[in-house]
Amino acid sequence: LRADLMRFNANLDLVGKYVAQYPNPLLALDELSRLLPDDVLINTLEFKGDGVRLSGQAANAAKLLDLLAGQPGYVDVKAPSATTRVQGSNKEYFTIEFKIRRGDKAP
To answer: Burial, 15: exposed, middle or buried (Cβ in 10 Å; 0-12, 13-18, 19+)?
Structure first.
């Protein structure tokens, strides 16, 4: 039984390390809701591993990109496609991708 317990604990450690590599989506959502300006409308928010992809509309997508790039723990912030102007509005459609790295995780 002791050997089984030791194996079980070792497996728990492995699972814990694996899960710790990924950001907590609820915490990231809370952080983004506090960080993003009120004029930003998010249509899509996707989490895949440590990557986040968000798309939506903003008055100034370039400023939004700079805002996210300036946050500690957000790395590789980029716009994978060009922004486009929303017809009849001062807003732009945007897509931004970035990775969340926290604590001692290597980039």
So the answer is: exposed
Q: Is the pTM of this model over 0.85?
A: no
For the chain, the distance separating the N- and C-terminal CA atoms, rounded to the nearest angstrom, is: 40
Q: Which residue has the tokens 């590789």?
A: 76
- Write out pLDDT tens, residues 24-68: 888 888 999 999 999 999 999 999 888 999 999 999 999 999 999
Nearest-angstrom CA–CA distance, 2 and 52: 42
Q: Provide the greatest CA pair distance for the chain.
A: 70
Cβ–Cβ < 8 Å for 27, 76: no
